[in-house]
Amino acid sequence: MNMEPETTYENYIYKLIQEDMDTGAYSRDICTRFPPEPNGYLHIGSAYAIHTNYMLARAFHGRFNLRFDDTNPLKEDMEYVNAIIEDINWLGYSPGEHIYYGSDYSEEIYSSAVRLIKQGKAYVCDLSPEEVTAYRGTLTEPGTDSPYRARSAEENLGLFAEMKQGSYPNGARVLRAKIDMASPNINLRDPVIYRIIHAAHYRTGNTWCIYPMYDFAHPIQDAVEGVTHSLCSIEFKDHRPLYEWVLNELSIPEAPKQREFGRVNVTGVVTSKRYIRQLVAGSYVDGWDDPRLPTIRGLRRRGFTPESIRNFVNGIGFVRHSTIVDISMLEHALRQDLKAKVPAVMAVLRPLRVVITNLPEDSNEWLAIENNSENTVLGERKVPFSRTVYIEREDFMEVPVKGFHRLAPGAEVRLKGAYFIKCNEVVKDEATGEITELRCTYDPRTRSGSGFTERKVKATLHWVSAEHGIRADVHLYERLLKDNDSPKEDGEAWDDYLNPDSLTVLKDCILEPSAGTARPEDKFQFIRHGFFCADRKHSSPGKPVFNRIVALKDSWKG
């Protein structure tokens, strides 16, 4: 992978790890982990977190773990597990055999809770969720002890065992850590560490009806796996004291260290899984892989390459605080990756028929045209030239305005890789007045590469043979949001926030035949239109659908 250490590693976490290496803080290899909850799909922000963990492990010749935080049976599903593994491998951050599941550590986590109860550091609480919140206090006022805080270890052990056996309904009791209800850090005010959930888990079935909270499970899972540096996004900074408290009370040797880095948000897209779920459920988008979404699946379907995404997150560098990155940076990384990789083809998106009257009706000439002007290794292809071709409707103007140099009555242009043509006649629909056909003549002396210099033309147009061209639908995408804004309250409609022009569908576009054999995810540069990808979801044999990945130049303003 083309990710150079000097652009990524020189940050305070790298220096912390280096200090730990120098002082011999760990007798095991450096190990980081990415812990997604399998309740949705990865997105561009996830790619940044994965990159940070993966590259720091790689810098120290250590190990990178993928561990699923699957301790909530109400939201998680194997569908998401499989998708996350596939997406991480596609991105190029493969964990290899180091794929783990938090649910596999259920016994260790339960035993840890029992240890805390025996040490007088945890207790069963009967307060309702609303009461727990009320007793917790505020940022300026200390909390109030639960009336159940003084229960003996023996009573707590018995009640916790009954919770595990399924003796109580959801919400009847919780297990809380006994820390400090007056702590200035609300996360240390006797946080809930276990709750009752009577629901089948996608891996463990009905074996358990109590499940640990993430803040309790997280450090124990890290310790079991031998993680040395638990790298989290910045919102977990205030949770770090609880992470350290759990490891300290359990006397974990060579305990992992939690450190935080900033979140990365991208303008014009939605990265909240909760919001994306609303868009999917409301049919505002075409599933989690909609090309307008910043999910890895959506970006892949749109036509983004793993290299472009890696280069994008690598180019951001390390950020300490949450930051917003303009989407043009992501597009730039994509253009830089594609421009020398993909072949160019001619595609007419809004066709206008052109008949070359001085060519015989059965005329067919196959012209050699280069595939990529920046990469001669891609060679050239044969393009059929026939009596009837299509050009873009916008490339003709019956009454040309000043500065219009394309085709007009009596004007002459070059057809790319072919000949000069001159418009002699305009044919219109008698009922509507719409232009339906142009009748032109060509100059056989002016074939591209012939050295003809008698006269010059100011425009070169792309075109497609009517006889040989293939028909395809083309999807043109713009940003999904009108502004960088989302609904403020649950249940608020998305309609006022979405760009109504985020998707334009063009039917029956005409493409040169070399694009007809495109497989899903094959990429091309459509001359003058941008970079396009064969849609992996809606393409079918003989009827491809192409998504515009990105325009040739940045047209979005962040």
Overview of the structural elements:
The protein starts with 11 loop residues before the first helix and ends in an 8-residue tail after the last strand. The longest helix is centred in the first third of the chain and has 16 residues, at 44-59. It has a seven-stranded mixed β-sheet. Strands 21-18-19-20-14-17-22 form a seven-stranded mixed β-sheet, with no helix packed on it. The protein has a four-stranded antiparallel β-sheet with strand order 4-5-6-7. Helix 2 (44-59) packs across helix 11 and helix 11 packs across helix 12. It has 558 residues and is α/β, with parallel strands linked by helices. It has helices at 12-23, 44-59, 78-91, 106-118, 129-135, 153-165, 214-225, 240-249, 273-281, 296-302, 306-316, 327-338, and strands spanning 31-34, 63-68, 99-101, 122-125, 174-177, 192-196, 210-212, 229-233, 257-261, 264-266, 323-325, 344-345, 347-348, 351-356, 364-370, 380-386, 388-392, 412-415, 420-428, 435-443, 460-461, 464-465, 470-477, 503-511, 523-526, 530-534, 545-550. The protein folds into three domains: 5-261, 3-Layer(aba) Sandwich (Rossmann fold), CATH 3.40.50.620; 273-338 and 472-550, Ribosomal Protein L25, Chain P; 344-468, Ribosomal Protein L25, Chain P (Beta Barrel), CATH 2.40.240.10. Residues 1-8 have low confidence and may be disordered. 24% of the residues lie in helices and 24% in strands. It is built from twelve helices and 27 strands. Residues 460-535 form the tRNA synthetases class I (E and Q) anti-codon binding domain. It comes from Paenibacillus albidus. Residues 345-443 form the Glutamyl/glutaminyl-tRNA synthetase class Ib anti-codon binding domain. This is Glutamine--tRNA ligase. Keywords: Aminoacyl-tRNA synthetase, ATP-binding, Cytoplasm, Ligase, Nucleotide-binding, Protein biosynthesis.
